[in-house]
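User: Hi! I'm working on a homework problem where we have to compare a predicted structure to a textbook description. Could you give me the structure for the chain below?
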Amino acid sequence: MSCVYLFDARESSIAELYIVSTIYKDLHVIVKNFSEIEHIRSTLKLEGCNAFAFITSDLELSSLEILYCLFEISRDVYIINENSMPVLSEFSSISNRCLEGEELHFMEFLSCFTDFKEMIRRLNAPIEIGEVIIRCLNSLENIANLNMQLMYKGSFLNKAEIHNRENDTCFDNICLKEFVEGEKKYREMFESQIVISETFKIKKLDFFNLVNAVRPSNSNSIQLINGYPVVYKLYSSYLFECAKIKKNLGFISSSFMYFFKSLETYCDGFLIYAGLGEINDYYNKKGELKRPDALLVNGSFIPGLEGNGQK
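Assistant: Happy to help. Predicted structure tokens:
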């Protein structure tokens, strides 16, 4: 197993740092501020020592040690002592080694948060970091619950809205109403007191930005890439990923339904791509409107071809 080494240079001399830097790779050096970094770099510039990373912090070494041990899943954490010798951190064993190299099923990931928070409490982590980590984990747990609703439970719509979807047209289906409501939920959470970086927020919202970019405003505004309607490919891929999650969780019947819906959605898009299908109003021989915005194949409506959009 690879290792990471922490060296507290805040109370050490340049000479001590030089010795340590020539011995250990993956060395992370703790300094007080950026000016110390520049001083160390200029002093050791011609010494040919191993490259190492800098950490600027006023936290106690024990606090930084705990943080490293929490998030270094695949590496042991060593502290370089005053004799330039490595000492395995007593907190290093708290990393969940069984997760290394393994795929976490969705619900397993969600169930880990209680264990993570209990782990922090058992460590008696300093207040300066303990409370922040707990708040961060709570925020991640809240987001994980939204992810579960998006990828597992299947909809952000309430029961009445889901029931009303029985009357949705083919065009209503590709308006992706669930995602519109889902984006609102995520944005509401991100605007609250949540301990998550802006980068993380942007990354989570990128999916909804993609959805909004391809959602058509009417049946004549469906975007095509190489002739294939993009919204169908997006929705089919989403349903396929949901099906895989349900399969991993053992919900075989629900998984089969999602796999089938994914295939059905992709085939609907293929009909449009092949020039056989279109979304248009369907009239009977008397000229009466029977189905608005239906998926027509060669101008005809085929019962059972288009889904009702319910998930």
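For your comparison, note the following. The two ends are 45 Å apart (CA to CA). Residues 94-106 have pLDDT under 50 and may be disordered. Good luck with the assignment!
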